[in-house]
Amino acid sequence: MWALLIRDLRLATRSGGGFGLALAFFLIVCTLVPFGVGPEGGQLSRIAPGILWVGALLSCLLSLDRIFALDFEDGSLDLLATAPLPLEGAVAVKALAHWLVTGLPLALSAPVFALLLHLPGPAYPWLVASLVLGTPALSMLGAFGAAVTVGLRRGGLLMSLLVLPLYVPTLIFGAEAVRRGAAGADPVTPLVFLAAVTLSTLALTPFAAAAALRVNLR
Amino acid sequence: MSLLAVRDLAVARGGLRAVEGVHFALAPGAALVLRGPNGIGKTTLLRTLAGLQPAVAGVIEAAADSMAYAGHSDGLKPALSAAENLRFWAEIFGGRDIEAALAAMNLRDLAARPAHALSAGQKRRLGLARLMVTGRPVWLLDEPTVSLDRDSVALFAAMLRAHLDRGGAAVIATHIDLGLHEAEILELGPFRAGRVPSQSRPAGFNEAFG
């Protein structure tokens, strides 16, 4: 398992791995919104929680199809499926690697982007907390979508259509936690729901994704 | 006690039976060469033996985790060096030393080179060296000598011979003579599945959908 995690992290950070792409995309989204909406601070800070969460979600989506597609093309996936490591474990480890290079950097750098959107001060810790709690679910659900569409030509687009609806609960509770933080209300309840969504995703999705991979390898 | 026994096996590709009624058993030290025209189902049979797809009928008897599969693609990451690629698979399969495998396929001088800078034959050699670090007793080889030059074929034959002498076994789909004189040859032609004739065309709309 360690070997797989380290290999995926190494591949992501070497040339052509796409590390930082999600962050750059997030930055561009957060820069474009004030241009589109106008620089009026009150309006921006009202929509900031939603924009930040939608931006994070789309940035996450950007690199999802790489989770399995590359391994499928070069035959590694066949070999992983015959390895002693259970395929469910391999799926979970690959989703973890995706989160470490996408979700975690997004969560940690979100306060900088929030500055661009005039997010009210008290919301900052809740923004980071909600992203740290919510983005693992995005990577895991994405791994499921990638597993279902692996081997399909132009599967990335189909994957987005499959995965985005599954992101809805995470988006609702994540953005709500930040909104309540911004308004000075108690954000704990949506955070607890967010954590519950993430935990159940982590518990169930590896099995679904591994089953989908087995079917696609036939 | 055989390492791999197959009884009355039928395999299918894309929902169509390819071969059926296949019988064989492999004792330690034995090799089986699969022969047959293109499309007969050699790859499908090997993938079924590897557990990558279910058998349509029949029994495959083998110990759990005893197969090492080497297909058409080598499972190499272009951004990693040859040694890193091999070490990854060694760790996944239980942390064996990669030096012996590098030496067996004459890859020592290429160990630090990134895989994208290897030639097709060198990639193949690296892919075959992976078999050694798996430590699995039964090797399932699908056209292993594709893009290998004559010297490399000899290297591979020597590695395979050493594997068999250690009590391993191999199923090989190949048309090249690897110098395995004792290897059994299984012609798949006679096992070609009798194609179920496609259903006679419905006479009309009502018969088809009514």
Descriptive notes:
Chain A: This is Heme exporter protein B. Chain A: GO terms for molecular function: heme transmembrane transporter activity. The complex is a heterodimer of chains A (218) and B (210). Chain A contains 11 helices and no strands. Chain A is 82% helix and 0% strand. Chain A has one domain. With 218 residues, chain A is mainly α. By secondary structure, chain B is of the alpha/beta class. Chain B folds into 2 domains: 1-66 and 137-194, Rossmann fold (3-Layer(aba) Sandwich), CATH 3.40.50.300; 77-126, no CATH class. Chain B is built from 6 helices and 8 strands. In chain B, the strands form 2 sheets. Chain B has a 5-stranded parallel beta sheet, with helices on both faces. In chain B, helix 5 (150-165) links the parallel strand 6 and strand 7. The longest helix of chain B has 16 residues, at 150-165. The relative contact order of chain B is 0.21. Chains A and B meet through helix 1 and helix 5 of A and strand 5 and helix 2 of B.
Summary of the model, kept short:
In chain A, 82% of the residues lie in helices and 0% in strands. Chain A is mainly α.
Q: What is the CA-CA span between the terminal residues of chain A?
A: 24 Å
Approximately what portion of the residues of chain A adopt beta-strand conformation?
A: under 5%
Low-confidence stretches of chain B: none
How many separate domains make up the residues of chain A?
1
- Mind telling me the CATH superfamily name of the largest domain in chain B? P-loop containing nucleotide triphosphate hydrolases
CATH class of the largest domain in chain B: Alpha Beta
Q: What share of the residues of chain B lie within helices? A: 25-40%
Indicate the structural class of chain B.
Answer: alpha/beta
GO molecular function (chain B): ATP binding; ATP hydrolysis activity; transmembrane transporter activity
Keywords (chain B): ATP-binding, Cytochrome c-type biogenesis, Membrane, Nucleotide-binding, Translocase, Transport
Protein name (chain B): Heme exporter protein A
InterPro entries (chain B): AAA+_ATPase, ABC_transporter-like_ATP-bd, ABC_transporter-like_CS, ABC_transptr_haem_export_CcmA, P-loop_NTPase
